[in-house]
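Lab notebook, bench 4. The sequencing result for the construct came back, and we need a structural model before the next group meeting so we can plan mutations. Quick request posted to the team channel:

Model the 3D structure of this chain.
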Amino acid sequence: MTTVLITHPAFVAHDTGAGHPERPDRMRAIDAALNDTRFSQLLRREAPLRDDDASYIALAHRQRHLDEMLALARRVTGGHEHIDGDTVVSAGTWEAARRAVGAGLDAVDRVVGGEATNAFCQVRPPGHHAESFRAMGFCLFNNVAIAAHYARAKHGLERLAVVDFDVHHGNGTQEIFWSDKNLFYGSTHQMPLFPGTGALRETGVGNIFNAPLRAGNGREQFEEAFRDRILGPLQNFSPDLVLISAGFDAHHRDPLGGLQLTEDDFRWATEALAAVARRHANGRIVSMLEGGYDLTGLAQSVAAHVDALIEAGA
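Done. Here's the predicted structure in token form:
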């Protein structure tokens, strides 16, 4: 068994404009890191464009949202258009967004089908801020929530868990999962910070577990919150599949956050989640890239994360 890396050159073609933190160079930085010889054993696959992706997007998003994104894609043939102050689309965005969704679906197929123990989806645009009814925060579709619903609809898995260690709270995933007791969402994140959600009192139907951190918090506070607020409830939940919203903007170098984590902290979190996956889900993990905007911090953190996935899948 092995780790599969799923990505595509189309993710570079999603052009967000000069000065935007969620930029194509993020893909190039990760490419350079994962081209190191220590990652030679990765099973590398291209994120697909699927003819049936709309039906699976509709499991997590309202049809109106899908229709609006399609209309926008048809309208933007050159230049840029802003959905909001943060979320920008260009002519290359629609293919990238569909391939980001396709990467998650493909990862689920490969991991549940036994081709790989786990998967890392190197994609953009990210997804965890996209709510069922709107795009926001750099995100068009909620890639990880769609993948979770797909695992249920296509493969019959019942208990799906998303753990999110991005510095920003995944309001979209929380909103989509809110009222379903068989969908688990756990998040460590900085508060106060965009998007303003993620308080301890936000618990859904007992399936939402938030662990807010303060600016300046580092390894000690992160590990304590992760153990107490995420790992314990996740063990009790007994997931059939663990999905990760792998954002690396909690790194101390990142310009959009104020947490003080290092790549070793992301390795630790990945190893901890892999231990839960081994116990309850036959080791199955699907990880999807979210944030991370300092190129050095991003590259080092992804390398540590993927290295831990490889070790877990060996």
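The chain is about 40% helix and 15% strand.
Will bring this to the meeting.
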